[in-house]
Specification:
The complex is a heterodimer.
Chain A lengths: L4 E3 L2 E4 L5 E6 L6 E7 L6 E7 L2 E5 L7 E4 L6 E5 L8 E8 L7 E2 L3 E5 L1
Parallel strand pairs in A: 2-11
Antiparallel strand pairs in A: 1-3, 3-8, 4-5, 4-9, 5-6, 7-8, 9-10, 9-11
Chain B lengths: L2 E3 L4 E5 L4 E3 L2 E3 L6 E7 L6 E7 L7 E2 L2 E6 L4 E6 L8 E8 L6 E2 L3 E6 L1
Parallel strand pairs in B: 2-12
Antiparallel strand pairs in B: 1-4, 3-9, 5-6, 5-10, 7-8, 8-9, 10-11, 10-12
Classes of the chains: A mainly beta, B mainly beta.
Amino acid sequence: EPEVTQTPSHQVTQMGQEVILRCVPISNHLYFYWYRQILGQKVEFLVSFYNNEISEKSEIFDDQFSVERPDGSNFTLKIRSTKLEDSAMYFCASSLIELETQYFGPGTRLLVL
Amino acid sequence: AQTVTQSQPEMSVQEAETVTLSCTYDTSENNYYLFWYKQPPSRQMILVIRQEAYKQQNATENRFSVNFQKAAKSFSLKISDSQLGDTAMYFCAFIGNNNDMRFGAGTRLTVKP
């Protein structure tokens, strides 16, 4: 069964450093998403991406964040200058069409020191 | 804005018994989707069940079923014949017209042997 994959599974970085989180969505899916979950809190929407551009973003997704689909398979989330409060689990998800079931990857646990 | 409320932070059930997790939501939209996701200790988000708002029939997936009350904006999850492997956080989620998934705060379910 096809699944969403994410790398790395864990990343530790120093405050102020740039990080890139990588995701490979399910191959025939057209919509891609990033969510984050701060430890002990609810899952929060960051951004959705379709047709090589952002379709929706939340107030969390400020200028420090960017997304890209550099090739036909990868979907990345970049945090330019990490802050302590960026420490969280980051989930990538994909769906075949809009307003459909989103399938989640296993997540990347980011720790900013 | 859509909100999702899970009023039970924690629940427990004896193995083989039945448990119901509550979820209410607030929206002015008529067409939307509702989901229950399970998050075990590995923190992966696993789809349990989904319901389209335009369908009156309650969704079922093996031991999992929902009680969808559209007028009351209620979407509860019933787990029958609970198993130890059902121990996890359960998140209720909503997708409306803007395609960003909104999650509830979660219910931590413990299945006791």
